[in-house]
Fold:
Amino acid sequence: MWALLTAQDIEDWKADYIKHADRIAHLKNEFRKAGRDLEEAQGKLEKAALFSPEVKQWLNEQSENVYHISLPDAIVLLLKGANEGLDKDEIRLRLPGVGYDESKLQASPNYFSTALRRLQDRNAITSDVSGKFRLVQHEND
Structure:
């Protein structure tokens, strides 16, 4: 079966591509902002929970309802929100702040190192000699 492909079809597809790419970029930005805002609010609530059992209970209940995010996505989101490089321990401690269920790390402790290595292999993150991880800045970021 043959189909007629016109220059207008190509132009329409290009316009669709640009529209969807722009939408994805916007949503990624919104997701990063929401992650930073969530981490900030959680930090404040964790401090309040030290003095209030009700806040602590509420916070524990909320952690069960947080959006479930993959470990590599959580690491990237966390590093995007960080003002400086973070070492492995800092990343691991902050993961719940971006919605990652830390009980998954207890079930499979090697997955954390594997995720960091794979992100480095994909040139998404890099680490310096001090062991601090940062996002790799790409031209279109």
Helices lie at 7-49, 53-63, 71-81, 88-94, 103-107, 110-121. The chain has a mean pLDDT of 85.
